[in-house]
Amino acid sequence: MAASPAGGALAVSLPALPVLPGASRPVAEGPGEETPRGAVREYLAHARRGDYEGAARYLDLSAVPAAERAAGGGRLARELQVVLDRTLTLDLDALADDPAGIGNDGLPANRDRLATVRGRDGAVDLLLARVPGPAGGEVWRIAASTVRRVPDLYAEYGYPLFVDRLPREFVDWRALGMDLWQWLGLAVLALAAWLLGFSAAWVLRRIALLLVRRTESDLDDRIADALHRPVRLMLTLYLLLASTYWLRLSMGAQAALVRTARGLTIALLTWVFLRVVDLLSRAAQERMAREERRGAVSMVNLGRRAGKVLIVALGVLGLLQNLGFNVTGVVAGLGIGGLAVALAAQKTLENVFGGVVLTVDRPIRVGDLCKFGDKVGTVEDVGLRSTRVRTLDRTVVSVPNAELAAIEIENFTVRDRFRIAAKLGVRCETTPQQMRRLVAAIREAFLAHPKVVRDPLVVSFAGFGPSALEIEVSAFVDTRDNEEFLAVREELYLRMMDLVAEAGTAFAFPSQTLYLGRDRAPGAPPARG
How many Cβ atoms sit within 10 Å of the Cβ of residue 150? Predict the structure, then answer.
């Protein structure tokens, strides 16, 4: 194909193109060709069906020698369609639906602008011309000046040279805006991209494993291993997207491919975040299990589910946005619905956040003996809504987390020492010497015990009671085990009983002394015997 100098005729030597089965052949008059919009619509309708000879009817081939129009018109119609598909998206509504065309576009009355494309030498206006029709009257055609520019534009934007050597079926068969050869090329490129993506992902994984194995934690090893497949698929996807340049896809097909790649990217990122959430929650659960924090495990499960729901919701919104839906209304609706749910479940959410506070602040743990309000018991589980406590009577009390987080909790398990506090009451007949020996002996007995902390230790004569002489004893036992404390306290109490007996005195108890006497009459002598 050769173009004549500017202003000359276009010389072409092209073989005739076959008409696909079912494609229409040129007719004397096309519907709507008396307007610019109708003429372009008919041209595109014929071209997209593969009827390029029918599409050539809507080209002004006056610059093409008459002997070559039959052979070259179909080729020019096909090449123009390729240029239009690869450079712009035609908006037929922007074209005039009036036989007179657009009168204020700065062009002559018999000219309209179809579109503007950018060529090697700058912007090129594709024009429509109003010319005499074959059956009389005037019709609109793609202008001869534009037809002359088609070979140059096709050389820049058209298919590679090998496509012209393929059988016509590879070019004429189209589906979803792509020729058969492009579909076959896409399959080959997809296979090549998968092989390259697999190799690149394998190399990246080996490098990542070499780096993470230098750390003490195995969490980064798990993350590197879990991200291998998503990274491989993402590399394959973008290698394929980059290689489609060689297919010279139309703008519509390229836009659809980019939109598909964007949607797959959103899906892959959603998958990545879901796997990361699973890994982090599993690591947290293992840590809670080692620390015997069963209640915290349930909170981790709640956080994992909530995080995954949020990630999936964001992924769905991203996919809807990619498909062209306006998600602003959806987000607003979710906000209103979430507010309604929050108001309806206010107490439940309050207890859930109370459980979060108990898990984070950790005033109590599973297995702790604690006192809250007037109840004492052992914590069995810190749940999402309530905390279960087994009392000293072996009953189970469920306390709402919000209430438990707001009251004072006394935790007996976390104390580092147990205190012995006692008051001994000995008989009032005890002499000072006996009292001194008894106080000293009790102090020595406490100091001699290996579990009693030497400081502070108080053993002293505290005062005179209504019916006893009181000795105050205060000491700390160095243990965290309640059972051991009870044994030590019993041992020391028995020893004090022995020391009281050895001192020659005894424990006092409330008593009264009754004195009996007889009163004598005034002046009477004292009674005898």
Answer: 25
Place of tokens 């069995």: 380
What Rg do the C-alpha atoms of the chain give, in angstroms?
Answer: 49
The rounded distance, in Å, linking the Cα atoms of 321 and 343 is: 29
Angle between helices 346-361 and 294-322 (to 10 degrees): 120
- Whether 502 and 441 have beta carbons less than 8 Å apart is answered as yes
Residues β-bridged to residue 423: 472
| Separation CA 147–CA 14 (nearest Å) | 15
This prediction's pTM: 0.49
Question: In this predicted model, what pLDDT tens digit does every residue of 12-46 receive, in sequence order?
Answer: 333 333 333 333 333 334 457 888 888 888 888 88
Q: What pLDDT is attached to residue 493?
A: 92
Residues comprising the chain, all counted: 529
- List of the chain residues with pLDDT < 50: 1-30
Q: What is the pLDDT of residue 299?
A: 65
Cα–Cα distance, 111 to 130 (Å, whole number):
6
Strand partners, 425: 470
d(CA 168, CA 68): 20
Q: According to the model, what pLDDT value does residue 291 have?
A: 64
User: Please, are residues 472 and 462 in contact by the beta-carbon 8 Å criterion?
Assistant: yes
How much is the pLDDT for 353?
61
Residue 513: strand, helix, or coil:
coil
Whole-angstrom Cα distance, residue 265 to residue 269?
6
What is each CA distance from 56 to 85, 96, 170, 344, in whole angstroms? Answer: 17, 21, 20, 68
